[in-house]
Structures are given as structure tokens and as C-alpha cells.
Design goal:
Order of helices and strands: HHHHHHHHHEEHHHHHHHEEEHHHHHHHHH
Shape: globular
Number of strands: 5
Strand order of the largest sheet: 3-5-4
Radius of gyration: 25 Å
CATH class of the largest domain: Mainly Alpha
Structural class: mainly alpha
Distance between the termini: 42 Å
Helix content: 55-70%
Strand content: under 5%
CATH topology of the largest domain: Neurolysin, domain 3
Largest sheet: 3 strands, mixed
């Protein structure tokens, strides 16, 4: 039996007793009692001023708040891990539902704290924060909470909304998780009809017929639940829009922008700069189609590997051990700290990567702040794409690692900057593999992978953003049917991909299968990916120009993500203004250069193979 150097399954037992154990039940019950007692105590908070007695009470409140917030994160992360690894386990699903009942208590605490800050005078608030070192250290968190208090409903309504969300907003998200987790797809494998989970159905087969058959089999399966998913997505968006209306917001993007600690000016600049520059990707897509011997790519061709052209060789499978080794070496060359972290986390069982039935689709990285550790979930399929996914999630884990000794409330970074760390990790790996390629054709394959990422972030994510933006505008007028949602999705895809795919080759039901649309805790789970991708490329380019000292600057950037707005974090460490197109163009120029290299190498390969 083959042995592996790095474990394929994660170790969760060192974090906590299993959720099915009596020890876990006791821990959960004790925590619920403590959380409930504290939440009730925050219904009457001290005044916000610099009176010594008030300052002392506030230090105690914030200290307990921090401990309990970390505890909730620990519990939710643990059950999420168990549920993802065993997607049909009803007991884990029930525990997820039970933990969701803690969210109103968490929200009650946040509401009470924010209302106390909201009602304080500017002078009183500044005096309180400045009166104690414990509060000064987390000033950014407190200021952000005061700023976000403007998004709150009146106190009683806020508490009621949090209670109703358990069986309302969040229940719709859990419904989608259950539907997608139990979905079965019938696919042909070696002439036999087999049943697979969504995460096991691959669209990167070298055989176009296999990709096409898998795509339509998956589309049919997702189509079987589209009406229920339409109900879920309608009610998730409807709940949000209703809340926004009562708060007085007119722009459905204001809340996600607040969550990502960035301005509308930055978002608009990013998308407009992308739209003006991404046409070059059509050259890449057209040349890839030529290499594959087809007139135009379809949706199910986007992840396809380049063909094994005569005399060019093909891509070898990459074992999990080989992937781990390559990632460690790439990270180590960037910085010893990054490489040592990757080796530790991979060797110590932080990753669940086994390819087996019954797992949830997709991948994620989740943190355990009390233990100062993370866990990564994915399904490794011996491909370069899987290796990149592993590097991506390790980038997330490293981000949490460098923040582990900061105050818990300053370890929370926005999603857009979180995706910078993950896509930066992919960039480090990608450049390392490109430099060590053994032939022009291998370099062509590497560029195909890098440009495939560009298509994903600049076209696919853009399509998701355009869909969700138009959906929220239409949803304000009333509910949409599954057919209407599919029409919006196809329109968004054609715009974002600049009509670069073949007629009939789109994926209108993409809104059904993409779980990001059903995440109830964070709206518009899309544009931060593109933000992070472009920022990471710019960061990498700056690093190449900065010499060996950049690893420390990079750590400072990651630490700043917990204590500064996005624009300030970048400006204070890298010196760029994200509200202007200059930095975005710096990153997009890298994409254009890669397209030129790809086309040149592709033409040389085609000429060579035509002479064989």
C-alpha cells in the first residue's frame, strides 16, 4: 500500500472533543449559558465617557466580548468542518442549526455595544477609548463599530430581526446547503452510469465529450432543484433589501462595501479599469480554442487542459505529496517563514484533501482563534488546479497565522483583503512552476493555468457581480422565477465574457449551483475575489522590484488588514491609492503580457506540430 508523507485527512480531535461526544455537549451547554448571561448583561451598558468607573466596566465588557466571540468562532468552525467532511450526516446538520441559535445572542451583544457607541457624543467616545490601554489597542475595531452603527435598525427591531433570521434568512441558506449537499449527479464513467456528489464531477477532462456530458448531467441535476433554490435566493435577497429600506439605504452595495472596508469609488475604478483592459483575454480564449481544434470555446471548455499535441508531451498527474512539496518549496523561496508555515500545517493535519464520496463541494479555510490554528477543506484530484487550490487555502491560513497574536478583534479582516493573501499564494506557486518548466510546451501549459485564473477573476467573477447587481435591482420590484434568474445570469455572462464563448455554450443555471449566492452572513460574495486577485498580482510585482526585504512588508500588509480600511492598509504599506486606475493597470499589464507570451508560444507549438 502506498504511503504518503503528508496526511490526506485533517486532525480535528486536537482542537476539541468530537461534536457527537458528551464532552462536546457539556462544553456547548456551558458556553451557551455563559453567552446568554453576558448578552443579557449588555442590555444595560455603562455610559460612554472617561469616568474611571465607566472605563473599568467597559474594559471588562470588551474583554468578555472578545473571549466569547472567539468561542463562537471556534464552535462554528469545528461543526462546519465535520459537516463538510460528512455532508449527509443529520446530526452535524442539527448541530449547525443549534449553533445558529447562538447568532441572535451574538447579534444582541453587537447591537447593544454599537447602540451605546451610536448614542455617545464624539467627545465622550474619544475620551473613553483614550482612557485605557486595552481600548486604545483596539481603537480601530471600536471606531468601526461606531461607524457601522448607522446601519442598525432601532434597538428592539434589531433584536427581533436577529431572532427571526434563525428561521428566516439563515434558514434559507441552510436549506441550500442541505439540497446541494445531498444532490446526486448521474455521469458516465467507462461506459457505466455512476452516481457522484457535485464536488466529484470534474470539468477538466482532456476529452471534450466527457466534459460536455458531465456539464449537462450536472446541469440537469441542478435543474431538478432550481425552483426551490429560486425561492431561497429570492428570500435571502428580499430580506436584505427590506432591512436596507428600513435603515434608510438606497444602494444595495453600501453594506457589502462597508463589510469589505472599502469605498464605492475604489470598486467602480476597479471594474471600469478591468472592462477597458480585459479584451486582451479574448485573444487567449481564441488561441486556446485553436490549440484544441475547435472554433470557439464553450463554458465546459474553460477548465480543459491543453491537448497532448504530437511531440509536445502532456501534463502529468501531480500526487498530493508532490503538490505539498512544490508548494513548500515555492513559499520557502519567497520567505522562510511562509515555507515553514506551509510545512507545519501540511504535516500536522490541518488539511482535509481526500477524494471520496460524501464530502461537501468546494473548498474553504476556517480559523480557530483560541487554538491559533486553521483547517483547510478541499478535494484533491491530482491536478495542477487542485494544487493551486491547496496553495490558495494555505494563503488564507497564513494570513490568520501572522495575525494570531494580535487582539482577537483585530484578527478579523475583510474578504477582499483575505483574498489577496490566498491569490498571492497562488501567484508565488505559479511563478515558481513557470520558472522551472522543462519545455516551451510546459510553459504554455503554465500560462494556460495563469490565464485561466485571469478569466475566472476578470470574467467569471465579473459575471457573478453583474448578475447579483441586476438581480437585486429586479428583486426590489418583486420575486423572480427560475427562468428569469437564468436569463439574468446568461446576460451577465455574455457581458462579462465579451461574447467570447460559442452560442449555446453558456451556463444560465450557474446561479443555482454557486453556493456563494446563498451565503447569508456576507452579501455580494464576489467582487472581493477580483479585488484580491489584482491586488495580489500588484503586490507580487512590487515584491519583485523591492528585493529581499519585501517579505517583511508583506507581513505588515497582512497585519494591517485587521486594523485599517482597505485603501489605508495598502497606502500605508505599499504606497498606492486604490481609488485611482494606476495600480489596477499595473496588475492588468501583467495579464496582457502573459497573453502575448501565450499566443507566441502557441503559434510556435502549432507550427512545430504541423511539420510532424
Amino acid at each position: 500500500m502506498a504511503t504518503t508523507q503528508f496526511p490526506l485527512s485533517w486532525d480535528l480531535k486536537t482542537l476539541s472533543p468530537a461534536p457527537t461526544s458528551a464532552e462536546f455537549r457539556q462544553r456547548l451547554n456551558d458556553f451557551k449559558s455563559r453567552l446568554t448571561k453576558f448578552a443579557r448583561s449588555t442590555d444595560v451598558l455603562a455610559d460612554v465617557n472617561s469616568d474611571p468607573a465607566n472605563v473599568s466596566r467597559w474594559v471588562q465588557v470588551i474583554s468578555e466580548y472578545e473571549l466569547l466571540d472567539a468561542g463562537i468562532t471556534d464552535l462554528k468552525a469545528l461543526v462546519e468542518c465535520y459537516a463538510a467532511a460528512d455532508a449527509e450526516n443529520k446530526q452535524y446538520q442539527q448541530l449547525q442549526a443549534e449553533l445558529s441559535t447562538l447568532m441572535p445572542l451574538r447579534e444582541q451583544i453587537a447591537t447593544n455595544v454599537e447602540f451605546a457607541f451610536k448614542e455617545a457624543t464624539n467627545e465622550g467616545f474619544a475620551a473613553l477609548v483614550g482612557a485605557a490601554p486595552e481600548l486604545q489597542r483596539i481603537e480601530y475595531f471600536l471606531v468601526t463599530r461606531r461607524r457601522n452603527s448607522a446601519l442598525r435598525l432601532p434597538r428592539d427591531q434589531e433584536v427581533l430581526a436577529a431572532d427571526l433570521a434563525v428561521d428566516g434568512l439563515h434558514a434559507w441558506g441552510r436549506l441550500f446547503d442541505r439540497l446541494s449537499g445531498s444532490l446526486k449527479i448521474q455521469v458516465q464513467e467507462k461506459g457505466t452510469l455512476v452516481t457522484r456528489s457535485p464536488g466529484q464531477v470534474q470539468f477538466d477532462s482532456p476529452q471534450r465529450q466527457v466534459r460536455e456530458n458531465n456539464f449537462f448531467a450536472a446541469d440537469a441535476a441542478w435543474g431538478s432543484i432550481e425552483d426551490t433554490c429560486a425561492d431561497a435566493i429570492n428570500h435571502i435577497a428580499g430580506t436584505r433589501l427590506t432591512t436596507y429600506r428600513h435603515v434608510g439605504l438606497r444602494d444595495h452595495l453600501e453594506v457589502p462595501l462597508r463589510f469589505n472596508r472599502m469605498t464605492r469609488e475604489t470598486l467602480d475604478t476597479m471594474w471600469s479599469t478591468i472592462t477597458a483592459a480585459k479584451g486582451v483575454l479574448k485573444e487567449y480564449l481564441a488561441k486556446k480554442a485553436q490549440l484544441m481544434g475547435i472554433e470557439q470555446l464553450a463554458w465546459y471548455d474553460l477548465s480543459a487542459p491543453l491537448p497532448q499535441l504530437p511531440g509536445a508531451g502532456g501534463a502529468d498527474e501531480i500526487s498530493y505529496d508532490d503538490a505539498c512539496t512544490q508548494i513548500i518549496e515555492a513559499f520557502q523561496q519567497f520567505s522562510p517563514d511562509f515555507g515553514d508555515f506551509a510545512r507545519m500545517s501540511l504535516a500536522d493535519g490541518w488539511v482535509e484533501a481526500e477524494n471520496r464520496a460524501g464530502k461537501h463541494q468546494g473548498g474553504f479555510c476556517t480559523g480557530f482563534p483560541t487554538a491559533k490554528q486553521s483547517r483547510i477543506f478541499m478535494t484533491y484530484t491530482n491536478s495542477a488546479d487542485s494544487m493551486s487550490t491547496l496553495a490558495h487555502e494555505l494563503g488564507h491560513a497564513y494570513h490568520s497565522w501572522v495575525l494570531r497574536n494580535e487582539p482577537v478583534f483585530l484578527q478579523d479582516y475583510p474578504m477582499n483583503l483575505a483574498e489577496t493573501a490566498s491569490t498571492f499564494a497562488e501567484a508565488v506557486l505559479g511563478e515558481q512552476r513557470f520558472r522551472h518548466a522543462k519545455s516551451d510546451y510546459e510553459r504554455l501549459q503554465m500560462l494556460d493555468g495563469l490565464l485561466g485564473d485571469s478569466v475566472a477573476f476578470l470574467m467569471n467573477i465579473h459575471a457573478r457581480f453583474l448578475f447579483e447587481d441586476s438581480f437585486h435591482r429586479e428583486r426590489a420590484k418583486g420575486e423572480l422565477t427560475a427562468a428569469q434568474l437564468s436569463e439574468l445570469m446568461q446576460t451577465a455572462q455574455k457581458t462579462a465574457y465579451m461574447d467570447a464563448l460559442a452560442d449555446g455554450g453558456w451556463n444560465p443555471r450557474f446561479w443555482v449551483s454557486k453556493l456563494h449566492f446563498y451565503i447569508t452572513g456576507l452579501p455580494f460574495y464576489n467582487f472581493p475575489y477580483t479585488f484580491g486577485y489584482l491586488l495580489s498580482m500588484g503586490v507580487y510585482a512590487v515584491g519583485q522590484d523591492s528585493g529581499g526585504e519585501f517579505a517583511d512588508t508583506y507581513r505588515k500588509l497582512l497585519i494591517a488588514t485587521g486594523s485599517k480600511d482597505a485603501e489605508d492598509a495598502v497606502r500605508s504599506t505599499l504606497g498606492f491609492d486604490l481609488r485611482k486606475p494606476d495600480f489596477w493597470n499595473k496588475s492588468l499589464n501583467i495579464v496582457a503580457d502573459r497573453v502575448r507570451q501565450f499566443v507566441k508560444l502557441a503559434d510556435a507549438t502549432l507550427n512545430k506540430t504541423s511539420q510532424i
